[in-house]
Structure formats: structure tokens, C-alpha cells
Write a structure and sequence with these properties.
heterodimer, A: alpha+beta, Butyryl-Coa Dehydrogenase, subunit A, domain 1, four-stranded mixed β-sheet, four-stranded antiparallel β-sheet, 11 helices, 10 strands, about 15% strand, B: about 400 residues, alpha+beta, Butyryl-CoA Dehydrogenase, subunit A, domain 3, 12 helices, globular, oxidoreductase (chain B), AcylCoA_DH/ox_N_sf (chain B)
């Protein structure tokens, strides 16, 4: 490994700029407002992110991107997590950008401009398992007909385009025989049903009924869709881990602040050793997660074909720490932590959704075990 | 002689030639896990002539203390050069020529707080492996609350009269000298009346008694001082106090930071030398059919890898200006992880792991030894206190 795990000057500047922008443009109160109005995310915020160049963080300069890399993408995701900013950043600027770039798609500049948003349609059951995909893409003459159902599709009811992992041969459970399609979400036969998930974001079930696709819609090779999506999934998982790290840090700041202010029994509750030790333990876990997240970004930038282990360590550890942070956050706030008026609940709900998306702790622990001979 | 070229590649070539010339192949053939440490000191029995010669060669060039200034017996290497030296040692499977509490602890304290004359006298004795030091901090009544030391050094005009006892003095029965915290002002607040004193273990009235641990080993001793005379100015004209009189706590705090990094880092060394997967591969594969054991192993591996990344990240941060009190986190996380690791190893080896010297060698002893990791050098609870107060700024009232 050549890169240091300490952020570079450019990365620190990116973080500072993102932090001050998001504090102003997307405080947690905007998530509350969107939730109350039933809006999954601010399109205005998304345009501003595109103007700042965030949509091009993983795209080459000739497509209008800055090509700063996965660690920079993680820094942006982390800052969004800190204030729970909702946007199609992970689906579009991380996952789709990585998959389309690998496939040599000509839509990269549209992503960089913020002109198009994407959703990844991959899950079919309650647990993440790409190879379990059964949605059929049946060949008819020069085209394919897609039929089936995808669930837990992040940004699935709002995205303009869809990445769909469909089965062109073999059977559910096999890694071979899957093909990655890039299609217009408005294509005839696609019906999104938005789910009312606890984090108030856009998650949808998509019904595919005889949806037409052609060879031009295919990213990568026919029957080898897992290779076409592999690095994009790692990128998405690493950025989700980064978002969870930011979320954890946001929740922890609130909790530590409360411990310094709240008085009971004539003392500041942060002076009780029982709480001090739990807070210090949690802080230690956050530092450890931060290292795993920085390393995942570094490995994706340096040797993307060998990133499974680093990414899974990051996603698993970030999941574990985020859940600890929000549980402790509610408990240490006491009754007020249980109220909707207080923001901690938003952190807890997003942590639960982030824990599941693109593989939960068990999925990633199994990948770590496989890589390490356990 | 060793040519300390400024050019990194030339330095690497020189240092590796020098290692090969002076560290015998017989030493380099010994696996890391089975190496006998070269501690040096007046009464030290070398494991082999080769071990003796390697230490001598290092002492002559200062490479036993690569970063220390040349005038004090070191080699005066830069941080980058030292890194290359360590890399070459590892590549050639050469042991470090000398290890000691003098190198790890007293030396850094003297370099920071000692007078020029003290450094000139004591440091070369350490780098040449002539004097073996031990540390006298804890007392029966002063463990985690280290600042409440009671061992007294009374001012008798031209000398100090030392009375009291120290506990957990590592290898005191094999050491030549001890650096100890003693109370020189009984009226002052407890942090302000302590001095950092150097005492000859051969002085009349000093006795030691090894403490047998639950692991069966006795690396620690109790050390007793009964009317021990410590000259204020010894025959070579040096003060036996390091730093200012009554300000020994500053020296102790500085050293504790060193010690914590060492213990936290040591836990990582164990992790690095033997991967969990490699260990499990040698066992009955049915062991991991137990879903509870498998789950524990998976979780441990995730935490181990993430913690290893944290050590690396903190090293990078230290190069850029230090980590301060946050180093307590490394000590806490590293030692708790190591305890978990050995609990798992004991579970997966089952009854084979229960013998003192059984199919898994000294596993049982190592398992018991790890229990001290989160006690020595400041308990896990003290580390959490430091993080809560110094890093998180949580109030004391």
C-alpha cells in the first residue's frame, strides 16, 4: 500500500467544503420537512451537488468528472451521513458511475452533469443476494423481454434510469447467467411502487411486465453481469459504510453534547463514570470504523479487483458501530430520545436501512470469513 | 563499519550487508516465535555466541538504539532510515540485537528530561547492553492510582534514605538498576511530591521476590527497599534524580504514553504473526460447524482487521504531528481484542488447549498472560477515563 490512511490536502479541502455546504443546504430539519411532505429528496439540493462536481467524483475528466476516486466519494457520503442528507448520490454518482465507466458507456457525461439519476434494481427477497436474482430476460429475436420483480430498490420510484440484474440463463442461486441491463425507467411495462420505509427515503418495489430491452442496453457481457456489477457493488458498499460512519459521528456528537449539558441529581450526567465509559467505548469504535472506511476507499482506488475483503470489513464494522451509536444515543438521551420531535430517531431509522442495504453484517462477515480462511 | 548514507537505496543496501555480515545465519534461521530475547546486563546468559556477537556488533555501531544521538551511544538514524533498518531486519529474519526497559523506557525519559551528563553516563551503558534496567512504579497500595506512591526517599543531607516496596517490577530479579517513583515531599499534593530516582539494585537493603502468576510464569517481582542509601551525588558526580526534584510525575506520565503504545502495538504483533484462518486450518474442520464458534471467529476477524487499519492510521497521524491522549484508545482496543482472540483460541482448541505444554504448545500460558494486557500500563477502565475526560471533554462534576 502506498497511500497514507490520513486524508490528503485535497481530500481535507473537499471534506471542509462539503461540511459547510451541507450544514447550510441540508440540515437534519430538511429531512424532517421532506418526510412530512412525502418527498424523498430535494431535487434542488441534487442540482447543487452536481454543480459542486460531486456527481463526477468517480468519472474521468473527459466526461466532465474530477476523477478524485473512491476515498473522496466516501468522504462526500460520510458528510451526507453526518446530517442525513438524502440524495441519489450513492445510486447514481457511485454505483451507476462505476458500472457505466467500466462498461465504457456513453452516458457518463449525463451523470456528471446531474442530468440523469439511476437506481440499482438487484434485490428480489428480503436479504441481499445478487446471485439469487431470478427476474427473467428472455430472448425474442433481436431483443429481450424482462419479467419479474425487484424490491428494496433505493431511489427506485424517482430514478430516470435503472440498472437491472436479470437472468438470461441458468437458475436462481448461480453466479453465471446474469446480465446487467441499463434501461429507461419510463419504459413500457415498468411499474414502480414506492415503499414507505422507516428512513423516509425513496425505496421501491419495481414490477417488470414484458419490458423490452435490446443488446444496446446491456452493460458488460451477456451472462456475465456479475463481473459488470462487481466493482460497482463494492463501491456502493464502501460508500454506504462511509455514510454510516458519518451518521454515527452525527449521532455521537448529539449524545456527547447532551452528556456535557444535561443535569440530574445535581450533576452533569456526563460526569457519571457509567456513562463516560460507554461514551469512550463508542468513540473508540468510531475511530476503528473510520480506519476501515478509509482503507476500503484506498483499496478501491489502488487495486479495485482485490477490494472485497477491505470493503466487507468496512461495511460490517460500520454497521455494527452505527447500530451501537444510535442505541446508545436514544438510551443516553432518555425519554427525549424517544420523541419524534428530537432528531435521534432519524439517525436510528437510517442506520437500520443502511445496515440492510447492499448486504447486512452477516453477508459481509461471510465474505470476510471466505477471504480469510475461516 | 556501517556507512550511513543519506540516499535511501544506498542506505538499504549498506544496512542489509551489515546485518548479513554480523547477524549469523544460525540466528536468522530461528523462527520468530522461538527466538530468545537478548536482554543484556551484568548477569545475562547469552543463548549462543552468535547472539552475543550480534549484540556486540550493534553496540559498536549504535544500531542497538538506532534513533538515539551518536554521542549517547545511538546511531543517529532518521525516522525513515530506522524504518528501512526494521524492514531489512524483518526481510532477513534477523532478531533485534538488544531489547530492554532501558531502550524502551528509561532512555526516552533521559533523552527528554535528563541532563547532558546523565545522558552521557547512562545511555551508552544501555546501548552496549551492559546495564539491565527495571521499572519501579506500582506499589501494593498504588495500582491504577499510581500517583499515590508511598515509597519514601527521606532527605538525609548528602543522601536519600529509601524505604518501601514496589510491585509488578518486571524482571527485577535479573535487573542491575531500577528507575523508580519515590515520594520526596510528603506534605505536597500527591502529584507534586514524587521524584523519578535511579537506584542500584546491588545497594544494601534492596531485595526482590518473584510473583508466580496464573500462567505459571514469574515475569514480575516484588521489590523491597529497607533503609537503602542513595547518594545525592554519586561517585561520578551525577544526580540520581531525573528531571526536577518533586516533578517525577511529569517523567512518569511521559513514559506511560510510551508504554501504552508498546502494549497496544504488541497485541497487534501477535495478531500479525499468526492469522486466525491459518490457525483454524490446522484444526479439526468440524470445529467450525459449530455456528456459535464460527460467528465468534468471523466477528473477531472483522474487528482484528479494522483494528490493524487503525494502528496503521494512527501511525500515519503520529508522523504528521501526534495523536495525544487518543493513544489510550489503541491500548484499550488492542488489549481487549487480544483477550478476545485468546478466548476464541481456547474455545476452538477445546480440551487440546488445556494442557500446560500440550498439542498447542504454550497456548494456555499465553491465554492466561493476555489477562494482564488490560491491566498493565493502565487498566482498560483508566484508558476509558482518559478518553472520556481528555478527548471527549466530559465533565468531572
Amino acid at each position: 500500500m502506498t497511500l497514507s490512511l490520513v486524508p490528503s490536502e485535497d481530500e481535507t479541502m473537499l471534506r471542509d467544503a462539503a461540511r459547510s455546504f451541507l450544514a447550510e443546504a441540508s440540515p437534519v430539519s430538511s429531512l424532517r420537512r421532506n418526510r412530512d411532505r412525502g418527498i424523498p429528496y430535494d431535487t434542488e439540493l441534487w442540482s447543487q451537488m452536481a454543480q459542486l462536481g460531486w456527481t463526477g467524483v468517480l468519472l474521468p475528466e473527459e466526461a466532465g468528472g474530477s476523477d478524485m476516486g473512491h476515498r473522496a466519494a466516501g468522504i462526500l457520503a460520510e458528510e451526507m451521513g453526518e446530517v442525513l442528507a438524502a440524495s441519489p448520490f450513492l445510486s447514481t454518482a457511485v454505483i451507476a458511475a462505476t458500472a457505466l465507466r467500466q462498461a465504457g458507456s456513453d452516458r457518463l457525461s449525463q451523470i456528471a452533469e446531474g442530468a440523469v439519476t439511476y437506481a440499482l434494481a438487484i434485490d428480489e427477497k428480503a436479504k441481499f443476494s445478487p446471485r439469487a436474482s431470478a427476474l427473467q430476460a428472455v430472448r425474442q429475436g433481436n431483443s429481450y423481454r424482462l419479467s419479474g420483480r425487484k424490491c428494496f430498490v433505493a431511489d427506485g420510484s424517482s430514478a430516470k434510469r435503472l440498472l437491472v440484474l436479470a437472468r438470461t440463463s441458468g437458475r436462481a442461486g448461480e453466479a453465471e447467467g446474469l446480465t446487467l441491463f441499463d434501461i429507461d425507467a419510463a419504459r413500457a411495462g415498468v411499474t414502480p411502487q414506492r415503499s414507505n420505509t422507516v428512513d423516509s427515503r425513496d425505496h421501491a418495489t419495481l414490477i417488470f411486465e414484458d419490458v423490452e430491452a435490446t443488446g444496446a442496453d446491456i452493460l458488460g457481457d451477456i451472462d456475465n453481469g456479475m463481473a459488470a456489477i462487481h466493482t460497482a457493488l463494492n463501491a456502493g458498499q464502501a460508500s454506504m459504510a462511509a455514510e454510516l460512519l458519518g451518521l454515527t459521528s452525527g449521532a455521537f456528537s448529539m449524545t456527547a453534547g447532551y452528556l456535557r449539558e444535561r443535569k440530574q441529581f445535581g450533576r452533569t450526567i456526563g460526569s457519571f463514570q457509567a456513562l463516560q465509559h460507554r461514551a469512550a467505548h463508542l468513540w473508540a469504535q468510531i475511530e476503528i470504523t473510520a480506519s476501515a472506511v478509509a482503507n476500503a476507499g484506498r483499496v478501491l482506488d489502488e487495486s479495485p479487483d482485490e477490494a472485497d475483503l477491505a470493503v466487507s470489513v468496512a461495511k460490517a464494522h460500520a454497521t455494527q458501530t452505527a447500530q451501537l451509536a444510535v442505541r446508545e444515543g436514544v438510551q443516553m438521551h432518555g425519554g427525549i430520545g424517544m420523541t419524534d420531535e428530537f432528531d435521534m430517531g432519524f439517525y436510528m431509522k437510517r442506520a437500520r436501512v443502511g445496515a440492510e442495504w447492499l448486504g447486512d453484517y452477516g453477508y459481509h462477515a461471510a465474505r470476510v470469513a471466505a477471504a480469510r480462511g475461516i | 563499519m556501517l556507512d550511513l548514507s543519506d540516499d535511501p537505496e544506498a542506505f538499504r543496501a549498506n544496512v542489509s550487508t551489515w546485518i548479513e555480515a554480523h547477524c549469523a545465519e544460525s540466528l536468522r534461521a530461528i523462527p520468530q516465535a522461538e527466538r530468545e530475547i537478548c536482554w543484556g546486563g551484568k548477569g545475562f546468559t547469552f543463548a549462543s555466541q552468535a547472539q552475543h556477537d550480534w549484540m556486540k556488533a550493534a553496540a559498536e555501531t549504535g544500531m542497538s538504539a538506532p534513533r538515539w544521538p551518536v554521542e549517547y551511544g545511538g546511531a543517529g538514524l532518521s525516522r525513515a532510515q530506522e524504518k528501512i533498518y526494521r524492514e531489512e531486519l524483518a526481510r532477513l529474519n534477523a532478531p533485534t540485537p538488544l531489547e530492554s526497559f532501558g531502550l524502551w523506557m528509561l532512555g526516552p525519559a533521559l533523552l527528554q528530561f535528563g541532563t547532558h551528563e546523565q545522558k552521557l553516563h547512562y545511555l551508552p551503558q544501555i546501548t552496549r547492553g551492559e546495564i539491565r534496567w527495571c521499572q519501579g512504579y506500582s506499589e501494593p497500595g498504588a495500582g491504577s492510582d499510581l500517583a499515590s506512591v508511598q515509597t519514601r526517599a527521606e532527605d538525609m543531607g548528602d543522601h536519600w534514605l529509601v524505604n518501601g516496596s514496589k510491585i509488578w517490577t518486571s524482571y527485577a530479579d535479573k535487573a542491575d538498576w531500577i528507575f523508580a517513583l519515590v515520594r520526596t515531599d510528603r506534605e505536597a499534593p500527591k502529584h507534586r511530591g514524587i521524584s523519578f530516582m535511579l537506584i542500584d539494585m546491588e545497594a544494601e537493603g534492596v531485595t526482590t521476590r518473584p510473583i508466580r502468576l496464573i500462567s505459571g510464569a514469574s515475569p514480575f517481582c516484588e521489590t523491597f527497599f529497607e533503609n537503602v542509601v542513595v547518594p545525592k551525588e554519586d561517585p561520578v558526580g551525577l544526580s540520581r534524580i531525573v528531571g526536577e526534584l518533586n516533578r517525577g510525575w511529569d517523567v512518569a506520565k511521559h513514559l506511560l504514553t510510551h508504554e501504552r503504545e508498546m502494549i497496544g502495538g504488541g497485541a497487534q504483533g501477535l495478531l500479525g504473526s499468526r492469522s486466525l484462518g491459518a490457525f483454524l486450518a490446522d484444526l479439526d474442520p468440524e470445529v467450525l460447524e459449530d455456528p456459535v464458534l464460527k460467528t465468534r471467529a468471523m466477528a473477531l476477524e472483522i474487528d482484528s482487521l479494522a483494528t490493524a487499519m487503525t494502528l496503521e492510521r494512527y501511525k500515519d497521524m503520529a508522523k504528521q504531528g501526534g495523536v495525544g491522549h487518543a493513544s489510550a484508545m489503541l491500548k484499550y482496543a488492542g488489549t481487549e481484542l487480544n483477550k478476545r482472540r485468546y478466548e476464541l483460541l481456547m474455545s476452538v482448541t477445546g480440551s487440546d488447549g488445556l494442557e500446560w505444554d500440550g498439542p498447542h504448545g504454550t497456548l494456555a500460558q499465553e491465554w492466561l498472560r493476555t489477562k494482564a494486557n488490560s491491566i498493565e500500563g493502565g487498566t482498560s477502565e483508566v484508558m476509558l477515563d482518559i478518553l472520556a475526560k481528555r478527548v471527549l471533554d466530559l465533565p468531572s462534576q
